[in-house]
Design brief:
Number of domains: 3
Number of helices: 18
Structural class: mainly alpha
Number of strands: 8
Helix content: 55-70%
Strand content: 5-15%
CATH superfamily of the largest domain: Fumarase/aspartase (Central domain)
CATH topology of the largest domain: Fumarase C, Chain A, domain 2
Order of helices and strands: EEHHHHHHEEHEHEHHEHHEHHHHHH
Strand order of the largest sheet: 1-2
Radius of gyration: 31 Å
CATH architecture of the largest domain: Up-down Bundle
Distance between the termini: 78 Å
Length: about 475
């Protein structure tokens, strides 16, 4: 152990720890979840420290030897080293001071080692005076959240684009398969299986575009705002130089925030981004639920599709195979919806010049991105790519749909068509057979009017008779 001192006194810190006394206090104060900070959040904060060292070296405010050591230490962390020393629970004191000091201490201790010093001495590199120069938790944490989210955006959208493309491939493969449509979980007009999957792809595509649009607001950086957004202790050149260095380090399209006070007061941009992710998760969960419905069976359900078998489905029922991947996706989406609720409440709970709830905001939005990226990748690779259509079952159910009577409306009117539908169900006879048996329309028109494929496209089944349907003008659809 080594002894370190801060304004509250001394503590014994493990000799092998790159963190220091302030980090240790946070570990002792907040043994809440057992979780560590999500990796991109650490990287985002380290990018800021690296950029600040380069900026202050450029302006001459920081000794070049110290700046270079901080940069080298930061490069090691960015490359994946020393990650085990970032130990503060996501549920910590407000604003993220503990996380900020954890990063400051790790970089200071490692920089001192690089300069021939020892851990815990903080000379010649001090965590506050040098690593945190001209910075505050209050401007670095919201900037780190923005950088972290943007750094994961391409991975996130790439996973969803892969799912979209897989759904489109299934749409093309299934385009000639007509099946029963269902609304309210009751019989509805026919639809092609391919149309359903194309619509799923469209929902994913629209949702991703909304996320990307929301992410654009994250590109405005409030770094340089310091304690309350006014830039106290910050050189005038600092915001522009920081933006340049951060752009070069991250490869991200970043902008200098024009109102750093607003960017510190409000976490609305992050909340809007989280909300867009939630909307995408809502659509994704609906798709996963639909897959579970369509695969229902194989003997006592609708059994319209087959999903790849990925694991046994029961510890007691031999041969049972469950829709395990869609079930996992549902659960992930539920978690994301909960994360967004947390982000929304926390974003509202800022007061005056600062939102102190930033740690839980950052954790939840990054967790949402992480688990959705992974879940969607698994859904694509282990489920959607291997979906097969059960053509026979689709044909079986669509011919038995009571909603096929709708196609008769232009010929015989709403009331008569409704009666046909009820009789079909009551007598257990297909509508097609009932119409032929009872001569509801001329026999040579039956198959033309009840053309299932044509019912899946815009148009009037069989064409509308001159003068309208017999027995009235029809009724509501």
């Amino acid at each position: 152990m080594r002894t370190e001192r801060d304004p509250l006194g001394t503590l014994e810190v493990p000799d092998d720890a790159l963190y220091g006394v302030q980090t240790l206090r946070a570990v002792q104060n907040f043994p809440i979840s057992g979780l560590r900070p999500i990796a991109p959040f650490v990287t985002g904060q380290v990018w800021i420290k690296r950029g600040a060292a380069l900026t202050h070296k450029e302006t001459g405010r920081l000794d070049a030897k110290i700046a270079d050591a901080i940069v080298q230490a930061a490069d090691e962390v960015i490359a994946g080293k020393h990650r085990e020393h970032f130990v503060v629970d996501p549920y910590q004191a407000g604003a993220g001071t503990s996380h900020n000091m954890n990063v400051n201490e790790v970089l200071a201790n490692r920089a001192n080692e690089l300069l021939g010093g020892t851990r815990g001495t903080y000379t010649p590199v001090h965590p506050n005076d040098h690593v945190n120069m001209a910075q505050s938790t209050n401007d670095t944490i919201p900037t780190a959240i923005r950088l972290a989210c943007l750094s994961q955006l391409n991975l996130f959208t790439g996973a969803f684009h892969g799912l979209r493309d897989a759904l489109l491939a299934r749409a093309a493969e299934f385009d000639d398969i007509v099946k029963a449509g269902r609304t309210h979980l009751q019989d509805a007009m026919p639809i092609r299986l391919g149309q359903e999957f194309a619509a799923y792809a469209g929902s994913i595509d629209r949702g991703v575009r909304l996320v990307v649009e929301a992410a654009d607001y994250l590109r405005d950086l409030g770094i340089g705002g310091s304690a309350v957004g006014t830039g106290v202790t910050v050189e005038k050149e600092y915001p522009a130089l920081m933006n340049t260095h951060l752009r070069e380090m991250t490869g991200l399209d970043l902008r200098i925030g024009t109102d750093r006070i607003q960017l510190m007061q409000s976490m609305g941009d992050v909340a809007g981004f989280s909300a867009a992710i939630r909307v995408l998760a809502i659509d994704l969960s609906k798709i996963a639920s639909d897959l579970r419905l369509m695969v229902m069976g194989p003997r006592t359900g609708i059994d319209e599709i087959t999903l790849p078998a990925v694991q046994p489905g029961s510890s007691i029922m031999p041969g049972k195979i469950n829709p395990s991947i869609p079930e996992m996706v549902n659960q992930v989406c539920f978690q994301v919806m909960g994360c967004d609720t947390t982000v929304s409440i926390a974003a509202e709970h800022g007061q005056l010049e600062l939102n102190v709830m930033m740690p839980v905001i950052g954790h939840n939005v990054l967790l949402s991105m992480q688990i959705l990226t992974n879940a969607v990748t698994v859904l694509t690779e282990r489920c959607v790519n291997g979906i097969k259509a059960n053509r026979e079952m689709c044909e079986y159910w669509v011919e038995r749909s009571a909603a096929l009577a709708t196609a008769l409306m232009p010929q015989i009117g709403y009331a008569a068509a409704a009666e046909i539908s009820k009789r079909s169900v009551k007598e257990g006879i297909l509508i097609r057979d009932l119409v032929k048996r009872d001569g509801v329309i001329p026999s040579d028109e039956v198959d033309r009017v009840l053309d299932l494929r044509k019912m899946t496209e815009i148009g009037v089944p069989g064409g509308r008779r001159a003068g309208g349907p017999a027995g009235g003008q029809g009724g509501p659809a």
